[in-house]
Predict the structure.
Amino acid sequence: MRTLICSLTLMLPLFAQAPPAPPRLVSPEVLPDNRVTFRFRAPNAQKVTVNRESAKPLEMQKDEQGVWSVTTDALEPDMYGYTFNVDGVGTIDPVNPLMKPNLLGATSMVHIHGPATIPWEVNDVPRGSVHHHFFKSTVANDYRDMYVYTPAGYDPKSKSAYPVLYLLHGFSDDASGWTAVGQAHVIFDNLIAQGKMKPMVVVMPLGYGTMEVLKSLRDAAVRTKSFDGFRDSLLQEVMPQVEKTYHVSKDRTQRAIAGLSMGGAESLRVGLNYLDKFAWIGAFSSGGVPANFTETFPNLDSKANDKLKLLWIACGKDDGLFEANKKFDAELSDRNVKHQWIVTPGAHTWLVWRRNLAEFAPLLFNNSPKT
Amino acid sequence: MRTLICSLTLMLPLFAQAPPAPPRLVSPEVLPDNRVTFRFRAPNAQKVTVNRESAKPLEMQKDEQGVWSVTTDALEPDMYGYTFNVDGVGTIDPVNPLMKPNLLGATSMVHIHGPATIPWEVNDVPRGSVHHHFFKSTVANDYRDMYVYTPAGYDPKSKSAYPVLYLLHGFSDDASGWTAVGQAHVIFDNLIAQGKMKPMVVVMPLGYGTMEVLKSLRDAAVRTKSFDGFRDSLLQEVMPQVEKTYHVSKDRTQRAIAGLSMGGAESLRVGLNYLDKFAWIGAFSSGGVPANFTETFPNLDSKANDKLKLLWIACGKDDGLFEANKKFDAELSDRNVKHQWIVTPGAHTWLVWRRNLAEFAPLLFNNSPKT
């Protein structure tokens, strides 16, 4: 990687007559057959591996220029996070601008393009927009942000208000997670263009009731403060702002809440305890489903079935949280709370959550979903 | 840095009873006196330095845990880019989520907070929003994006349309540069709240007429193709979209164009050749000011003074592009084109451009600016 100093001096020869620079590394290079070559310059390193999402670390070989490289087998079209591990120390791929923002450590990402039918491939369809809003949170006592997707042709004067989905990221993501990594806006654009999903407004707030939880996740009191603060900020700060700014329905049957991992747990905690506000709930690979069901959902029983339009619980078979989610499925069944329990391939990764979203979003705000 | 694998397994103990992890590194740590401690874990490295924007590389020392660290002198409040150099290889700070996105290599960033009067400090003032739009560019033959800032209280039905500034990033930035690194939206929020700047819409498009230029900057034909393509995309694609979507004036006296480095040159090339469309022009540390003035601006002479409300050319004294900008100032003077030539401290860095923006934006759309 060029250092900062180098990247600044790069500007100077920009339009002057400078001697040619050494050839720039290309990494990752996606080959026509979907094998991928990763490259990393580290002349003094002893061992370098590439660690890819949902794959074992792959050892790289050094050439005489000090460039380490390895070529994978052909990969399924998808977007894979990865890092290099250099003598035991992880790092991003310095020449690859495609990154996964993350509050506990960014990683690089390689996109292996596939057919236009893949929901997260950009197609020549009408495109929605993503709006970035900033506000002072009294609940969390900080300045924070949220993102709002509006579909193509969004009309603030349309006859009927838009349904609205509150879509929550996971632990260590920031509020941009669902768009920057999840490609949620691209998925929505495609599904709406195909007539598979109702045009809706999608709100992606910051999922922490307190930012302390990023440093003190193992502290139960901090976790509770974060869950409670998130709920209060959502209900008292985010939703009123959204309903003031956007032409969205305030009818509970036109409101959904869903999320991944920590955001899945938040969707359950808020959604199932506020059925007067939400009728559609999705939880993908939930992390933090409660150990004590009755304590978290004191009023939840079969009476909820009249209010719930959809309760959709998904988890990948290889996810470390699978058993906890399966237990939650059983507890819902024990209490005769109608729901869908979706078991998919995959682990605790965005490969699963992009697919979850593409499967879940079309179910929303349809009058007769299977529940 | 935790590897990707680790960051995924991090999720698992999230809500389970896992053994405590080793203490997480804190880097950068801003001390109360504005000294900064940088830390980087690399047990096997021989030499590690921290390379900070506008500063000499600083050697770090390794402790018995393999953690390298160094503490700077007290620094002026600002936002500084930096990287680590590990045995000759640059890398970001893996535990710091604050980053400068860049198409040729992201870097880390440390924010040393200062008094509320610093224009890029977030204050408790009404906040504008940043809208992310996506479109297919026929000119560039790709899918691309742009960002649009709307001020707090933006009213699409207001009596008079908003003035509009087209604000252009530099070479290697992406369309998010002015917000993610330049904090332009924060600067505008503050200046508008203080009554120092007119509320306006600010459009931040992608500044490449062809993405090829990122790989082939030294190819004059590609550079020309990029400049021309940028101009065509701006005039034919970006401006019509903006004028359709936002309540902005189409009056040339209510339109400005400005940019940094490559974007400065673009502002001059488009602005000065299209005075029928723009009356306010700003160029910060321009990279690519033309070697041949007459060829680039065939019609530019003192007749332009009737149309130009402001031509504002700034450059830092320590910028490698200072002489080229100074020459351009002289050429404008030779042709009796009225302009302001602003010499500031500083080099080719965002430390200069944030200040440029805070100085330039208040001049816009005032009836009697000094020109």
User: Anything to note?
Assistant: The radius of gyration of chain B is 22 Å. Helices of chain B lie at 4-9, 177-180, 184-193, 220-245, 262-273, 293-296, 322-334, 350-360. Residues 220-245 of chain B form the longest helix (26 residues). The mean pLDDT of chain B is 92.
